[in-house]
Amino acid sequence: MSASDGGTGSIRGADTPDDGRRPQNSPTGGVSAPGLDVPALGYGAANVGNLFRALSDDDAWAVLEAAWDSGIRYFDTAPHYGLGLSERRLGAFLQTKPRDEYVLSTKVGRLLRPNPDHDGGLDTANDFHVPDDLRREWDFSADGIRTSLEESRERLGIERIDLLYLHDPERHDLDLALAEALPALEQLRDGGEVAAVGIGSMVSDALAAAVRSADLDLVMVAGRYTLLEQPASAEVLPACRETGTGIVAASVFNSGLLASSEPRRDGRYEYGQLPDELWERLQRIGRVCAAHDVPLPAAAVQFPLRSDTVRSVVVGGSRPVQLRQNAEYAALDIPAALWEELAAEGLIPA
């Protein structure tokens, strides 16, 4: 499948090796969740919600058009991203495309309500360059989950949302999420409101607890299963194998550290500076990639998809060239010897 085909595949198709790994030159050939085919490469639309820097409407449209033209057919957003701006911009774009040709996911758990303290400022405390005339209110109740879905439909201008994630449950109340929010998501799926449900989180413990406590289709693992580090391997991946839950890997560039073949020592890591031990690990990975003439970002995009539990990799980007490049990285033929050497050096799981 070429980068422009935009198709999806089944769990074990004719072109899928017997070990369950996807062909490395198939950036959009996806794997099924129950009731939903998820393309293997997706776009995470936080950037078109003005994450880190402001984009004009035209600039945001150009980014989304580049994603589409590159063959990307899975788009993920959230009310949190730009206080609804990401949903509005993504929805306006996708309304121009055939509805059966893409998969759309958004998130619940935070409702957007008027901010009585708005004084003309921006939401930069949350890294979004948008007016803070709205505020986020946590609501994990069944009514809150349904209200969030309905309000996302309105902002998107699209009735059919395929996949619904509970967003960052550990940041509010994980016990409440397990007791109320996840059952509410299951009810929405069982009632036909969405095709699949899950959670999105950067915390492995929260992901594993949710997988073992609820009947989830997919979980979005943000930054916890990457070429640089794989803490999700300890609990999340085994839990997903036991339950048949798929994984969508996000933040695969580790805050941008893996986005260049020549990473910088002062690069951002999570919410602080890069620890010395990870910098040394990153340099070792970079040397192996260079020895095999493989761009580090290409290995970063493709690594998660080598796991039998990972269904899709979601990448971001605020410039069209980044989306085109990421699709090329996803389609690049990477020799097996690269993975073998990384495993032999203990840099990735064997």
Give me the number of helical elements.
Answer: 10
- Widest sheet, order of strands: 3-4-5-8-9-10-11-14
Number of strands: 14
The portion of residues forming beta strands comes to 15-25%
CATH class membership: Alpha Beta
CATH topology value: TIM Barrel
Domains, number: 1
Distance between the termini: 28 Å
Oligomer category: single chain
Global Rg: 19 Å
Main sheet, how many strands, which sense, barrel? 8 strands, parallel, barrel
CATH superfamily placement: NADP-dependent oxidoreductase domain
SSE pattern: EEEHEHEEEHEHEHEHEEEHHEHH
Describe this structure in words.
The protein is of the alpha/beta class and 350 residues long. It has one domain: TIM Barrel (Alpha-Beta Barrel). The chain has helices at residues 57-69, 85-94, 142-156, 174-190, 204-213, 232-243, 276-291, 296-302, 320-331, 336-344, and strands at 31-33, 36-38, 41-44, 74-76, 103-108, 110-114, 134-138, 163-167, 196-201, 218-222, 246-250, 268-269, 272-273, 310-315. The strands form four sheets. The chain has an eight-stranded parallel β-barrel, surrounded by five helices. Strands 1-2 form a two-stranded antiparallel ribbon. A two-stranded antiparallel sheet has the order 6-7. Helix 3 crosses helix 4, helix 4 crosses helix 5 and helix 5 (204-213) runs parallel beside helix 6. It is globular and about 55 Å long. The protein starts with 30 loop residues before the first strand and ends in a 6-residue tail after the last helix.
Short description:
By secondary structure, the chain is of the alpha/beta class. The protein is 35% helix and 17% strand. The chain has a single domain, classed as NADP-dependent oxidoreductase domain (TIM Barrel, Alpha-Beta Barrel).
